[in-house]
Amino acid sequence: MPREERFARAERTMTIGFWMNAVLMVLKLAAGHYGRSEAVFADGVESACDFIAILSTMIALRIGRKPFDERHPYGHGKAESIAAVVVSLVIFATGAGILVNAVHTIADRTFQTPDPVAVAAAMVTIGIKEWLYRFSVSTGRRLESPALLAVARDHRKDALTSVATLVGVTAAFFGAGFMDPLAAALTAFFIFHIGYETFTAAVHDLMDSQPAPELLREVTALAEGVAGVEHVHEIRGRRSGQFLIIDLKLDMDPEMTVKRSHDVATTVKRRIFERFPNVGDVMIHINPHDEEHEDLIRL
Question: Residue 142: helix, strand or coil by DSSP?
């Protein structure tokens, strides 16, 4: 998939989620306020926070799609991981706010009986948010976009939140008033878990952690299958937004000419690009295979 098409798909998916989230935000805030449901109103506040988070992610995608330049020789892909961290912090803050409000309501025993409109709002939110999750996670996995996957998790968080909201507001509607704020409190813990998953995945990428071992084994096998490559001495990888950057050290015949070894390395790189569309660059170092050599590194 061409680079521009990758980012265009991610941006289209994000834009759909952005505007649908805006509609849900207004719906839930109005239904929670006029329908006298703390859980539904808290759900609306959460959607307002999501509105800000998705907007920051859309900005990050705009930055991340810029090609490499002199100041950023590895591209601008890290902007997506930074946006995922921002989304995770918004998720944590939202959960904390909902939990505090729910605890106050339970402690003060200021329960209210919600109207049917609050129940309807929760039901509509579950359906829309689950569809948005499936739509976003499908595109995010195809593109391997950390920002899009973070937003997808946020949509799933909203769907789970609304399930708890629906249970609580329905029970409160039938007389168990304490269930409305209790549902809001339980929802907060779902939110904390999803925020943690989003945060750790983003930090993993920002710290240049290794990609999945299975992927590195596949790249190693592919490289060693090229005529002229005796062995893959070392392989490393790191993520930059939707792309992976691979570092390879190849053992070759020491009598091979520079031209021949360059051609072999180019073949390895081309085959990796053909097999792995999410690899953005491959850096190759060549070693003589018949002698020990010291790896010079200061990290």
Answer: helix
Provide the pLDDT confidence category of residue 2 given band limits of 50, 70 and 90.
low
Length in residues, the chain: 299
| Tokens of residue 208, six digits | 């240049």
Which H helix or E strand runs over 78?
A: helix 78-108
The pLDDT assigned to 227 comes to 94
The values of phi and psi at residue 93, to 5°, are: -65, -40
Find out whether 248 and 284 touch, Cβ atoms under 8 Å: yes
CA distance 24 to 12: 19
| CA–CA gap between residue 261 and residue 252 (Å, rounded) | 8
- Compare 231 and 86 and report the one with higher pLDDT: 231
Q: Cα separation of 24 and 131, whole Å?
A: 13
What would the two tokens of residue 113 be? Answer: 């009986």
More confident residue, 227 or 144: 227
What is the 8-class DSSP label of residue 76?
S
Please give the helix or strand (H or E) that residue 23 lies within, else none: helix 3-34
Q: Give the number of C-alpha atoms closer than 13 A to the C-alpha of residue 153, restricted to the C-beta side.
A: 26
Q: 175 — alpha (psi -120 to 50), left (phi > 0) or beta?
A: left
What SS3 class is residue 77? coil
* Dihedral angle, C-alpha 7, 14, 183, 38, nearest 10 °: 150
Distances (CA, A) of 186 to 40, 79, 183: 13, 32, 5
Single pTM value for the model: 0.66
How does pLDDT run across 122-177, given as a tens digit for each residue? 888 888 888 989 988 888 888 777 777 877 887 887 787 778 778 877 887 787 87
Beta bridge partners of 234: 249
